[in-house]
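REQUEST FORM: STRUCTURE PREDICTION
Request ID: SP-0412
Submitted by: Lab K.M.
Chain count: 1
Length (residues): 145
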Amino acid sequence: MKALDIIHGETLKKKVPDMKPGMTVRVYQRIKEGEKERTQMFEGIVLAVGSGTGVHKTFTVRKVVDGVGVEKVYPIYGSTIEKIVLKKEATVRRAKLYYLRTAVGKAGRLKETMIREEASAPDEVVAAVEAPVVEEVAAEEAKAE
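STATUS: Completed
RESULT:
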């Protein structure tokens, strides 16, 4: 086994969501400015998932800020990427959505099929609501006996 294969194998252990063109994703990336380090978020539509394999695979994300289109190409297994959160999913019939660069208005919209919420938030809300109710029920049962 080559040394390069060993390094690539360790990098590929990172868990990455299955992304497809048309998905709206939120990418959290670590940015180093001088001695400080911070996390920067970029949310947009996946235009393309690169044709590379393994460590070399990339994906392109696009969003419009103040009427100007901004695209970023990220390596899927990049060391600076903290996490990728899938927000929405849309029905698309192409592998590359480069036509969205020139589409304006209604033509630039995609038909959503499913909306995804962040995994941690709904569970915490449900647990916070259920806890007092369970305690009240237990107290009432204790009084009844």
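NOTES: Residues 119-130 have pLDDT under 50 and may be disordered.
Reviewed by: T.R.
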